[in-house]
Amino acid sequence: xxxxxxxxxxxxxxxxxxxxxxxxxxxxxxxxxxxxxxxxxxxxxxxxxxxxxxxxxxxxxxxxxxxxxxxxxxxxxxxxxxxxxxxxxxxxxxxxxxxxxxxxxxxxxxxxxxxxxxxxxxxxxxxxxxxxxxxxxxxxxxxxxxxxxxxxxxxxxxxxxxxxxxxxxxxxxxxxxxxxxxxxxxxxxxxxxxxxxxxxxxxxxxxxxxxxxxxxxxxxxxxxxxxxxxxxxxxxxxxxxxxxxxxxxxxxxxxxxxxxxxxxxxxxxxxxxxxxxxxxxxxxxxxxxxxxxxxxxxxxxxxxxxxxxxxxxxxxxxxxxxxxxxxxxxxxxxxxxxxxxxxxxxxxxxxxxxxxxxxxxxxxxxxxxxxxxxxxxxxxxxxxxxxxxxxxxxxxxxxxxxxxxxxxxxxxxxxxxxxxxxxxxxxxxxxxxxxxxxxxxxxxxxxxxxxxxxxxxxxxxxxxxxxxxxxxxxxxxxxxxxxxxxxxxxxxxxxxxxxxxxxxxxxxxxxxxxxxxxxxxxxxxxxxxxxxxxxxxxxxxxxxxxxxxxxxxxxxxxxxxxxxxxxxxxxxxxxxxxxxxxxxxxxxxxxxxxxxxxxxxxxxxxxxxxxxxxxxxxxxxxxxxxxxxxxxxxxxxxxxxxxxxxxxxxxxxxxxxxxxxxxxxxxxxxxxxxxxxxxxxxxxxxxxxxxxxxxxxxxxxxxxxxxxx
Length: 709
Ligand SMILES: NC(=O)c1ccc[n+]([C@@H]2O[C@H](COP(=O)([O-])OP(=O)(O)OC[C@H]3O[C@@H](n4cnc5c(N)ncnc54)[C@H](O)[C@@H]3O)[C@@H](O)[C@H]2O)c1
Ligand SMILES: [Zn+2]
Hints:
It is built from 24 helices and 22 strands. Helix 1 (8-41) packs antiparallel against helix 2. The strands form 5 sheets. Strands 12, 13, 14, 15, 16, 17 and 18 form a 7-stranded antiparallel beta sheet that branches. Strands 2-11-10-3-9 form a 5-stranded mixed beta sheet. The longest helix is centred in the N-terminal third of the chain and has 34 residues, at 8-41. The chain folds into 6 domains: 8-77, Helix hairpin bin (Helix Hairpins), CATH 1.10.287.610; 101-347, D-amino Acid Aminotransferase, Chain A, domain 1 (2-Layer Sandwich); 352-444, CATH 2.40.50.140; 462-535, 5' to 3' exonuclease, C-terminal subdomain (DNA polymerase, domain 1); 541-611, Orthogonal Bundle (DNA polymerase, domain 1); 635-702, 3-Layer(aba) Sandwich (Rossmann fold), CATH 3.40.50. By secondary structure, the chain is α+β, with helices and mostly antiparallel strands. Residues 364, 441, 443-444, 446, 459, 461, 465, 467 line the site of zinc ion.
């Protein structure tokens, strides 16, 4: 650039591009530094990870074109954030690094990693496949734990990779982090165990729900959390251990830092896989999803399989990690500035993305609850295209201050409905109007009410409101209620809008002719729907009660009511006190049941249904003992993911066998059924001496057999 160039205009053009690139480089570095600070130091990011990663990739590409511009303080050269001075600092004798990321989310991208490893190890083409260990990449906060002769001494965050923060006081409150190592671990003079502190998705949802209630109750300084990672990181990096203890944190161990060498009494490991087994023996939770894979095709297959299970896992993962299994090969491959050469993080589609709010609709639910829903510019999140995301309630919209035209962060993780978590800067100028809940139901025009102390607005129209009517009919027909196959959204819309069905009893008065005349309905499918309606007439009292859609009466309450009272009249006539004799029925539920049957039109619908032939076996308040009930009177708690049963299936089996499923472990719990990634409930069970079963044990119990936990 200094010498005058012979081909002046060509060089001038190059100079102009270079100058522009320099400006862009500077801007990227500043933005990345700002967002890293928000993310790592404040635990309060403003943009989704996917957005941050895009900026980072742009910077990496720029620096690759101009290696001479790379400086040691570039965000591409650094790990994580800075340690906060409010914590004592801890030096990592073995640095805590980042992991090289593969953002191509196709499984085949694993092949390139394997090829690179083979090249760097200088393996011959016909050499056998390289052994790897593949693990989920947990989306939480990296922690290192120092143990001396088996006793936890210190816990620290990653910080900038060389120096972290001392968070021993909060990490001690995590039940899954052993304070003392078991087995051979107890004898090691010094060992540093590395792993991830994270928050399970259900724990996160429950925490945010509690936060929403707190905010509704007027508690200041409370907020909801953007995602499980930030909730977990924020909890660990608290000065007050009580705050961390109140947040449900979990832990997975996945590696070692510094460790006493074998010649001084430490263990000798040759493979990463052995390390994982040892960690498990020492008492750490290690993911059951970790697997040994030989060669690149096996890695790709692992990526595909875990990807298929991602939504069903109880915790967030943002990818999988491949690690060369042989530790001597890991040493040979070594490190580049901020990442080991022997590992790769292979990503999945991001669970958070930016998009724009086109409108804020208000939906009316089955019980009349009004929910603001953001209509979005379609965006690919967590593997699907999302066009709508919930905003929960009016308070939440106002607190997040989401307005039409804003750019927002949308999160979709697992089977949880997509959610708008925050508005992302910059704000459009001028901005739209602040959101207001309508005064009248958007569906039926009835007045909208908000009862004191409630967060939700409701339509006061009741069954007069078609939204509630449609939802009530869909609820009535669903599998776990009256189980009318083929009666879905579209058909219910047609039936209600066409005036054929006003109440659920009208379903049983439908004729073949009426149905077959509906658009898109052939004779055959009309016949099928009628047959399904006919079949549904033979039901159980529990299903019928649940199908009525009484507010606060879910499946298990319906079952308890049926078991306790035996016949419908007894329930319809029971007063609030009598209703509260049923286990788990409190004043709110009792009042809601009473109010339902006090409505003359509800009683009328029930009478009409019976007149149409809906029937079930009744008894005099004893137990329905038609089938053997090996779990009668037993309370079980489910935790973690079982190998073949979903949580819902396990619950249904237990309840069919007469047992109850509770949400938390207490002295009254008879068994805890634990699967993969079992959380704090498992620790509680061990603490209280409650027998713990796996799925096989559960099946033995259900079959009426004895189990030895
Ligand atoms: N939204 C934002 O503003 C913002 C800002 C900064 C960083 N970020 C995000 O943070 C991430 C930055 O990555 P990073 O450099 O911290 O590294 P990383 O999180 O991508 O990878 C390294 C980390 O992976 C974790 N990990 C999980 N499972 C593991 C396993 N089985 N084995 C080993 N390690 C495992 C460890 O905590 C380790 O520190 C990116 O996803 C980026 O988008 C976001
Ligand atoms: Zn209405």
